Amino acid sequence: MTAGATIVAGGAYVVTQPPDAPPPRAAVTPTATPSTPGPPPPSAPPAPKPTPTKKKADLYGTVVDAVDRAPDPNTRPATLPRRPEPGITSTGGPKAVMQHRGDSVTLSGRGYVLVRWQISPKSRPGALVMPSWTGLKGKVFHVASGGWRRMDDPLPGAPNGYATGMGGPAIGYAELPSGTQQMWQNEYFYVDGTVTLTQNERGCDYGLTVFPSNRQAVEEDINAGPAQGALRYGLVRDTGTDSAPVPQYVTRSTPADPATVPQRSRV
Fold first, then answer.
1. Which has more confidence, 191 or 43?
2. Among residues 213, 91, 94, which one has the least CA distance to residue 144?
3. Cα separation, 39 vs 169, whole angstroms
4. How far apart, in whole angstroms, are the C-alpha atoms of residue 235 and residue 195?
5. Is 250 helix (H, G, I), strand (E, B) or coil?
6. Which of 230, 212, 180, 233 is nearest to 86 (CA)?
7. Which terminus of the chain faces fewer neighbouring Cβ atoms within 10 Å, N or C?
8. How many other CB atoms sit within 10 Å of the CB of residue 13?
């Protein structure tokens, strides 16, 4: 075995070689001599700037009808916002009369709909099971209330024992479910799509008449006040946006029993 060492700049080669071995391979042992620094590593590319996100608008259906107080009878309504109204098609034609449990009407298109109430506690008082809106495709809004009165307004001198449109001591009353908004004689809705309204009469006797309508007719109704013989001016509920209220008892599903639709609508 032979060995040798050779000093070179930047380190020492240490070589060992047995007799008749192949040519030596050298191991490099670094010394403390500093080396010239190499170029800096390439800098990382700048992080992409986050894409600004738009503020999420209120989703349709976040505002649902609730119990409210009657306005002063002499308070004029706000201006009814304008919405497109190419027209509504009704399976009940221009006047759908629904007097029995299970009667229904399907409304399609874009426009206004009048639902007129007839409550008959003299025929049968008691708990009133509200109508429901089912199979909604699109949107439905509760835009105004009119008909010259709320159904719980006093009716001085009314015949047949009625103290209000909800009944009287002599004949009994229609009783709304807890949390249900008091209806007016005329309730106006705006449909943008398709929805079915079903009469769910159980307990108290009532009827509904459903008419495709238009903005002009709504304005004429709600702007008639005490000077024209109305008990009160009507009320505008529409905001003109998706923040307008959604009626209670509305769903996108089609339950076997429409009377089971929850009061708290989620659409």
1. 191
2. 213
3. 99
4. 24
5. strand
6. 212
7. N
8. 14
